Automatic annotation (TrEMBL):
<dbReference type="InterPro" id="IPR016169">
    <property type="entry name" value="FAD-bd_PCMH_sub2"/>
</dbReference>
<dbReference type="Pfam" id="PF01565">
    <property type="entry name" value="FAD_binding_4"/>
</dbReference>
<keyword id="KW-0285">Flavoprotein</keyword>
<protein>
    <submittedName>
        <fullName>FAD-binding domain-containing protein</fullName>
    </submittedName>
</protein>
<dbReference type="InterPro" id="IPR012951">
    <property type="entry name" value="BBE"/>
</dbReference>
<keyword id="KW-0274">FAD</keyword>
<dbReference type="GO" id="GO:0016491">
    <property type="term" value="F:oxidoreductase activity"/>
</dbReference>
<dbReference type="InterPro" id="IPR006094">
    <property type="entry name" value="Oxid_FAD_bind_N"/>
</dbReference>
<comment type="similarity">
    <text>Belongs to the oxygen-dependent FAD-linked oxidoreductase family.</text>
</comment>
<dbReference type="InterPro" id="IPR050416">
    <property type="entry name" value="FAD-linked_Oxidoreductase"/>
</dbReference>
<keyword id="KW-0560">Oxidoreductase</keyword>
<feature type="domain" description="FAD-binding PCMH-type">
    <location>
        <begin position="16"/>
        <end position="186"/>
    </location>
</feature>
<dbReference type="InterPro" id="IPR016166">
    <property type="entry name" value="FAD-bd_PCMH"/>
</dbReference>
<dbReference type="Pfam" id="PF08031">
    <property type="entry name" value="BBE"/>
</dbReference>
<dbReference type="InterPro" id="IPR036318">
    <property type="entry name" value="FAD-bd_PCMH-like_sf"/>
</dbReference>
<dbReference type="GO" id="GO:0071949">
    <property type="term" value="F:FAD binding"/>
</dbReference>
Amino acid sequence: PSSPAWQNATLRNNPLVPPALQLILTPSSVKEVEKIVTFANQYRIVLHPTVSTHGFTKTLTRATPGIQINLTKFNSIRLISKETIEIGGGITAKEVIDFLFKQNLRATTPGCDCISFLGPALGGGTGTYEGIYGLIGDGLVSVDIVTAKGTFRASAKENKELFWALKGAGHNFGIVTSARVRVHPIDKKVDGNEWLDAIFSYEATPSKILQVSAPSSAVAWRRQVITTMMQVAFPISFKGTKTEKQIFELGEKGRALLRKGEKGEKLVYVNYANGDEPQEEMFGRANLERLRALKRKWDGRGVFGGYNPI
């Protein structure tokens, strides 16, 4: 914190929820990530992996002072086959979209191109074309992850339980250094106008999301018809003022109003969570005990406990 570069290095998209930090590291290899995780696990230090610092949950502010891990050097991308790409854990949505466009391919990608690709995927991942290809997480073929227990590959064939958890509650289990993602050729005969398709296949056409088997991932809200997020933007100068209090009261009223229209189990998309919701709402009652058991197995000392922890 005493470094002149500290202020710029800790800037966040939402300055109201800065995590408590004592160190910032920018690893450039998996070996370096492994050393950081081993050290943090030994001393029970919370790690905050980040790419674009867009996370806004209140739980970031509650964790004990930890270490921010900038993954921006893990931004590789390559074509494995006509159906698969391999990406680094720190790649942004824009880098993926631009690469796919040049290859005449596409996949479900985050609706905002300035954020990371895998951050949303680990929470399930809503995005453009989800109505055609499913959630971002549904497109994951395999994930290479550094956990407190070591480095592993998770897929439908390897570490299957961990792979299930990574697609919906993935922020809780480790640092993803790379992943393979399913991609699709652009077929204008089927899809019609590209621009209109990009708009109306986003969250308004959940058919593919519903077709994916619910047990295939830890996404609890897959059967919800509409995913909604309410945001109120205001200048940071309002912080600590009466106006800020009134804005938060407005937000709470809006959330309560939206909740009135819910039917059945109350659920929240973990990446949209405010951070004060019960775990049953973030992860679903049916998933929670299974996720807690996996959390004890893979992160028993709570190293990955900053972002909506289980």
